[in-house]
Amino acid sequence: MDFLAQWIAAWKIPIGRWGREFFDFLTTNFSWIFDNLADGLATVLDGMAGFLLWLPASVVVLVIAAGAYALQRSWKLAIGVLVGLAFIINQGLWAETIETLVLVVAATTVSMAIGIPVGIWAAHNERVYQFLRPVLDLMQTLPTFVYLIPVLILFGLGAAPGLIVTVIFASPAPIRLTYLGITSVPKPMLEAGQAFGATRNQLLWKVELPAALPSIMAGLTQCIMLSLSMVVIAALIGANGLGKPVVRALNTVNIPLGLEAGLAIVILAIILDRMARIGREIDR
Known about the structure:
By secondary structure, the protein is an all-alpha fold.
């Protein structure tokens, strides 16, 4: 190593130590906040999963199939949902599927609740977008395993940290696609609304959001897929669901269990993706 490289390495910036001190400060002074938040989220998630598991599996399957038909008006999709969920029950993975479904729906709901307002705000304020862009880039490019360390320190093991990690990973998609949808609204459409005396709120609700709805719904489907991709990662920090049998199969080189759990995740992903394609139908 040359002299210049040795000199640079000798003056190492203590990023790791600063990070440790920062998280030590948080856990020392605000641990009660993180503990209460984790307990509250875990109670909600466990309660939802417990209720769905208390219901007969056949009833839950029929409700989901009926919901698929109501959203898409497709008997083929409803039958596909019935067959797919019946296969999951046949493989003995119904409880894990329900736990994964609850985690994905909760993470998607929170991510969309954050993403749509932030995306609208960024679309209407260029400074906000300029600030958010590097943050979103960091959230989308930072390796997912890096999220686990601070989340584990602050929230411990369980469903709550799994939800938080999933929201961090998935929320950039609806923010970006909402921003894209709002900024892509044709100017003549906005000018026509202004010519008819529409206020700023009326333009948002009656012009911008309807025009941007396909892009927003694309953000929803992306959010669902990203949430499902975090299932295995969330299992590493104690979240229940289909990620646990995948991790167990990986640790024991259990090929049958890995295939069964993997197929269950694929089936659940296809069902949720097809049910969430409202925006594309509207766009047509």
